[in-house]
Amino acid sequence: MNATPYIKKNIAALICSAFILTAIASCGDTAKTGATVEAAHDHGAEGHEEHSDALELSQEQLDAVGIVIGEIEQKNLTAVVKASGQLAVPPQNAAQINVLTGGIIRKINVIEGQRVSKGQVLVTIENQDLIKLQQDYLTAKSGFSFVEAEYNRQQQLKAANAGTGKSHQLAEANYHTERARLKALERQLQQYGISISRIASGNITSQVPVTAPINGTIGKITAETGSYAQPGVSIMDIVDNSKIHADLIVFEKDLSKIKIGQKVDFQLTNQKNEQIEGHIYGINKSFENDSKGVVVHAIIKKPGTNLIPGMYVTGLIGVGTATTSAVPIDAVVRSDGKEFIFIVDNKAEVAHEQEHEHDHKGEPEEKHKEEDAKHGKSVHFKKIEVTTGVSEMGYVQINPLEKLPEHVKVVTKGAFYLESKASGPAAHSH
Prior knowledge:
This protein has ten helices and 21 strands. The protein has helices at residues 4-50, 59-65, 129-159, 165-191, 196-200, 252-255, 346-359, 365-375, 415-423, 426-429; strands at 54-58, 68-71, 73-88, 94-97, 103-108, 115-116, 121-126, 207-211, 216-221, 228-229, 236-239, 245-251, 263-268, 271-287, 293-300, 312-328, 333-335, 338-344, 378-392, 395-400, 409-413. The strands form four sheets. The protein has a six-stranded antiparallel β-barrel with strand order 3-12-15-14-13-16.
């Protein structure tokens, strides 16, 4: 019997089996490798997320941009009560422009945002009924001349005991009646802005001016040339911001600390860097609606042109002094409506040093020192959100929103550079 075909068949089977086993092992190694890579990627992502708010600068970079590191100090600053509210003007510093008589608007002399003075002509109104009013005035004036002459004649007769008492009484009654009627027509014409002397000289007009009752700035104009102006319907408004003040809401728990004359530092929501000062001049004696808050009125010492009634404002009312945590004003940066400081992140530095030791493990000590001298020791910074209070003597009160490490170091100068670096693309390259 020939065994050669059988042997060949077995050898082929063995080769196929070995090939299959090798392929399976290769697939297992590939899966392990893929899992390792994925785990490393996840770990890297976690590490990036964990230190996404951290910054690293070398000592050379710190010196180049002038970054100074210091401590959070305890300063004896003014204790404050924080109150929110709105800017407003007194009623006598705001005016709605109305007409005393209906009529067609023939001319508008101002535009929105224009500064006007008291007595300046804003609008000219035309009404044909004004012609009859002026005619009535001229008629009354002419009739009063006769009545006045008769009254004077009766006065002379009475003085000479030549007249009758009844005639004198009748002349006196007519005199006072016509005089009152004439004065009423004069007053009415003056309210419309029509000159009495011009009417007396024969200049009758159907147009009357509407003047500004106060100094101020023109607001919204609701009328148009050729439209009909009705009495009681405002055609424009004027606001005088020279007396603008703040109405702040102080809640019941802080009300006992508030007194007239206390200093107030204002912060506008859209102008955080501008310093506005004032003082308390009035405290309401009733709660505002159901809020358990009382309106406190504060005068602004130097109101600027950028202050507009209705703006939201935060007032820091000084109620005494207290020792509080503070940093230089330059240490606080603002971004997206929030306030931040930068602290030295010691945990990140320790982790970096351990990673550096691991990378250079096994290298000669001389080479290790040479690398450290070449690159220099780096400093890690972390961005911390804070809220701020009163500012005095170049310092600002801070209240971190998270607990800070003991003896923490903060950036006292050059924080704006770290903020620009954190906000730029470089912050993600690390």
